[in-house]
Write a structure and sequence with these properties.
- The chain has 169 residues and is mainly alpha-helical.
- The chain has one domain: hpI Integrase, Chain A (Orthogonal Bundle).
- Helices cover 51% and strands 7% of the residues.
- The chain contains eight helices and three strands, in the order H-H-E-E-E-H-H-H-H-H-H.
- Helix 1 packs antiparallel against helix 3, helix 5 packs antiparallel against helix 6 and helix 6 crosses helix 7.
- The termini are far apart.
Length: 169
């Protein structure tokens, strides 16, 4: 049961770019899933902002797997051991435990960072769209790309690969 819960937690951070606090703050009613579409509504993002984030196939499968075990009904998507809601600290510990099992050191914030970075690198998604997905917006809801740029700054290794890829005719 924990494996399904942890997979759903990690998928929402990695495949939807949710903050750990946003992930544990989700209620069952914030999730909308079908075979071909899905989304989560973040009701209380940073700064009290609300947004809807689409879910890709992997995230939909992980959340659906967790919902099969958790069961329908109302309340937190991720209940805590003693009732109530799973805490951010408990979610961080779950991510660390799964990462250790894979021989990695990963935090929830690194999962979110990877989401933003990979959208730009692999998907060639414009920064304004990544900003909206990540909840990097102004009070009026406009994308705040200055914040998103920090998540997409290339590593030294990526800069070296870019230079090595240069081909002079």
């Amino acid at each position: 049961m924990l494996a399904a819960r942890d997979a759903a937690l990690i998928s929402l951070m990695l495949h939807a770019g949710l903050r750990v606090s946003e992930t544990v703050g989700l209620d069952i009613g914030d999730v909308s899933l079908s075979e071909r579409r899905g989304s989560v509504t973040v009701r209380f993002g940073k700064g009290g902002k609300r947004r809807e984030v689409p879910l890709n196939r992997d995230a939909r499968a992980a959340v659906a797997g967790w919902l099969c075990l958790r069961g329908a009904g109302e309340g937190p998507l991720f209940p805590g051991d003693k009732g109530g809601r799973l805490t951010a600290r408990a979610a961080e510990a779950a991510v660390a435990r799964v990462a250790r099992g894979a021989g990695l050191t990963v935090s929830p914030h690194q999962l979110r960072h990877t989401f933003c970075h990979e959208l730009v690198e692999r998907g060639k998604v414009p920064l304004d769209r990544v900003a909206l997905l990540a909840g990097h917006t102004t009070a009026s809801g406009r994308p705040r790309v200055e914040t998103t740029v920090r998540y997409t700054t290339p590593s030294q290794e990526e800069l070296e690969r870019a230079v090595e890829a240069l081909e002079w005719v």
